[in-house]
Amino acid sequence: MFFEGLKIGTSFFMETIVGFNLPEEGQSIAEISQWAPPETPWLILPVICFGALVSGLLVYTYAPEAEGHGTDAAIRAFHGEGRIRRRIPILKALTAIITISTGGSAGREGPTAQMSAGFGSLVADLLGLSERERRIALATGIGAGIGTIFKAPLGGAILAAEVLYSRDFESDAIIPGFLASVIGYAIFGAFEGFEPVFSPVAVEWTTGQIPFFLFLGVVCAAVGVLYIRTFYGTKRLFAGIFERYHLPKHVKPLAGAFITGSLVVALVYLSPETAIIGLAGLGTGYGFIQLAMYSMLPLSVLLFIPFVKILTTSLTIGSGGSGGVFAPGLVIGGATGGAVGMALHTFLPGMVPIELVPGFVVVGMIALFGAISNAPIAVMIMVVEMTGNFSLFVPAMGAVAVAHVLTGEETIFVEQVRNKSFSSAHRGEFEVDILEKIRVAEVMVPRDRVISLSPADACSQVFSLITSTHHTGYPVLDGDRLAGIITTRDVRELLAGGDLSLPVGERMTRSLVSIREDRTLEEALRLMIDHDIHHLPVVSAGDPGRLAGFITRTDLMLAHSQAVAARAP
Length: 569
Description:
The relative contact order is 0.11. The radius of gyration is 31 Å and the shape is elongated. Helix 6 runs antiparallel to helix 7 (131-149), helix 10 crosses helix 16 and helix 12 runs parallel beside helix 14. The protein is mostly helical. It has helices at residues 2-17, 29-32, 44-62, 71-79, 88-101, 109-127, 131-149, 153-162, 174-192, 210-244, 252-270, 272-280, 286-293, 299-318, 326-347, 357-372, 376-387, 393-407, 427-436, 440-443, 459-469, 488-491, 504-507, 521-531, 553-567, and strands at residues 445-446, 473-478, 481-487, 515-516, 535-539, 547-552. It is built from 25 helices and 6 strands. A hairpin with a 7-residue loop joins strand 5 and strand 6 (547-552).
C-alpha cells in the first residue's frame, strides 16, 4: 500500500500538476528516452512547499518521532525500550508519501524501516513477547520491510543485523530476518512483480581494472563524508534557528522545501544541462540513476548531481521532512561512480571502455552508502540484487572496503552504537559477564586496611570517622571476630539529640549479611540489591566468622568500569 501510494502521489503531483514526465527506474532504454522536463517548472515550488507544510503539520502535531529519515528512529527504539507507538506506521507512511511525491528529496527506505519496526513492536505487544524477543521482532521488521520494498530479500535480512551497530552484528536477527524477508518479498512480488528495481545492464570487467574501482572507493569516501556533514550540519542549523527565534516546528519542513524548490526551479531555467541536475535533486532520483546506467548522462551532469542531491536531501530531511536517506545516498554514490567512470573513459578510453561505465555507477552506489551506513555487506548485496549485476561483486568488495576504512567512525545513522556492549539491549548480559569473572578478593579492601570499630566504642566515634573518612559504614570486631556492622542508618537519629556516648554494640546491626572472599562480584551485587545495603563484610572462605575484608557498591562500580575500559577496542 505504501509503494502504491508513492506511485499514485508522484503521478498526481509530478505528472498531472507539474507536467513532469520523469524518468523511472526499471524502464527500458526506449521507454526512459521519452522522459521530458516539466512543462511549467515554476509549479515545482508551490507543490513541494504544499507537501512539506502538510507533512510538517501531521508530524509535529501527532508524532514528533516520525520526523526525519526514520531508520535512526527504528535503531533508537531497538537500543532503547524496544517500543514504537502504534500510530507511527500509518502516520510515517502518509507523511513520507506526501513528502516524496511532491518532490522532496528523500527515499522510501527510512519510512519503511520505521513502519516495519512499528509492526514488529505491535506484534510483540499482541503476543506478549519478552523484552529480548520484542527487540528481535523490531529488527526483523526493519530487515523484512526494506528487503521487500527494494526487492532485495537477502540484503534486507542482513541489513537488519548489520545496521544496528557500527562494528557488530545482531546475529539473533538474521534467521528471523531471512524468514520474514522471504514472506514479505513473496507477497510484495505477487502484486508488484519480481523484476529488479533497476533494469540490468551487462558489464564485463578485467583484473587490470580493479585499481580503478579502488580509486572510486576513495572518491566515494570523500563524497560520503561530505554528505554526512552537510546533512547533520543543515539539521543543526534549522533546529538552532527555529529554537532561537521560537518559530513553530510545524513549518520547519516548509522552510527547507522552499529553499529546495527555489534551487531546483532556478537550475531548470538556467540551461538544459543544469535542468537535468536540478530535477535529479527531486524525489528519490532513481530514474536518473537508470539513465546513468544506460550511459545517457554526460560527464558535466554527473559531476554536479552528487552535490545538488546532497544539498536538496539535507534541506528536505534535515529540516524535518519525512523520508529516507538510503535512496538519495544511492543516487549520490551512483552519480559519483558514473562521473569517475566517464572521466576515466575520457582520459583512458582503452582501459575504461564506455561499456564499463554502468559498472562504476553500480559500484559507486555500493561503496558510498555501504561505507556511510556502516553496513557494507548488506548494502553490497542489496544493490547487486536491485541492479541484477551479480558479476560486480569483486570490484564492489574492493571499493566498499576502501571507502569503509577511509570513512572511519563517520555514519549517516547516528543512533548506531559501536557494539553490543554499548547497547541497552545487551547491557545486562555484559554487566553480568564482567562481574561474574571477578572475585570479591580481587576488589575488596583487605583486613589490614579496613577501618573498624569495637562494640565498646562510643557512637560519637562513628561520627568522627564519617567526617574524616567520608565512609558510611564500618565493620565491628570483637577481638578478631566479626560481631556486626554499623552504618549511618544505625546512628542517624542520634544526631537529633541522642546520647552519643552509647556503645557501638547497642546500635550496630548484628544480623549480618556477608559474603565469602571466593565469591564473584555478581553475587555481591545481588546481595546488596536484595537487602538494599551498600556495604558487605567479606569473610574468610575457611572461617565465616573471621573478617577478610570489606566491599562497597562504589568498589563494585569502579571494578566494573575498569574492566569495561580494559576490554574496549
